[in-house]
Design a protein that fits this description.
Order of helices and strands: HEEHEHEHEHEEH
Shape: globular
Number of helices: 6
CATH topology: Glycerol-3-phosphate (1)-acyltransferase
Largest sheet: 7 strands, mixed
Low-confidence stretches: none
Number of domains: 1
Structural class: alpha/beta
Mean pLDDT: 89
Distance between the termini: 40 Å
Number of strands: 7
Length: about 240
């Protein structure tokens, strides 16, 4: 596959690409569509919202965004940045640490807005963790993405639905070579500019969040070939990241 566009990328991004490309191809059968719907780099910043089905799906979605011609800047839970080697590579690649459920979450939003203002492609899993829905549909998302929209209301939001990586299960030699499908569909960019200047009330935050997740869920339904549930599953547990 050739990239749709070829913006400059630094040493650490290219290091990740050299690792992820062969890994993705070895473990998964990739079937992605409508990558051209992700705005090109000369169109400025873009916020990409994706459902989270598996701990491994980030390596796939990183390749998808790269394949579209953008350099991905993931909003990733802060704990990952403390991992040996990987944490340093994440920092070097310009990824954005997120401290869920703490006052430091506000700094994460500011870092994301700064990246968007630089014309970057910021990638977020609005659910905040892998889905807990019993049937693996996108669950009710946190309102962090809505707060980000209010801080950067003219940034297009690209919803992406994915399906398949959760079927891989744990890694074992027996499974090695049995490639699982990685399906993904990119939706049309959402214009959220009508929320410019709105106060971040609970109702507004939920409206924005649910509109974005409904668009993500619609792409998942297309991939699954079945109707989506009318309501989002609401998880019981909250997630907090400590420094």
């Amino acid at each position: 596959m050739s990239r749709l566009h070829k913006p400059k990328a630094g040493f650490w991004i290219r290091t990740w690409v050299s690792i992820l490309y062969p890994l993705d191809g070895l473990l998964f059968r990739i079937r992605w569509r409508n990558l051209e719907r992700i705005p090109s780099p000369d169109q400025g910043g873009v916020l990409i919202a994706i459902n989270h089905v598996s701990q491994i799906d980030t390596v796939l979605m990183a390749r998808l965004v790269w394949q579209s011609g953008r350099v991905p800047r993931f909003m990733i839970k802060a704990g990952v940045f403390g991992w040996p080697i990987v944490g340093g590579m994440m920092k070097g690649a310009g990824q954005i640490a997120v401290y869920r459920g703490t006052s430091d979450a506000a700094q994460s939003l500011r870092d994301a807005v700064t990246a968007l203002e630089r014309g970057e492609a910021v990638v977020i899993y609005p659910e905040g963790t892998t889905t807990k829905d019993p049937d693996n549909w996108p669950m009710e998302a946190k309102t962090g993405i809505a707060r980000l929209v209010l801080l950067s209301p003219d940034t297009p939001i690209v919803p992406i639905g994915q399906w398949g990586p959760h079927r891989m299960g744990g890694f074992s030699l027996k499974r090695f070579g049995r490639r699982r499908p990685s399906l993904a569909s990119v939706g049309e960019p959402l214009d959220m500019s009508r929320f410019r200047g709105k106060e971040p009330t609970g109702a507004i935050l939920r409206e924005i969040t649910d509109e974005i997740m409904a668009a993500v869920r619609a792409e998942v339904a297309e991939l699954r070939g079945e109707p989506a549930p009318s309501q989002f599953f609401v998880p019981e547990k909250s997630y907090v990241d400590k420094r």
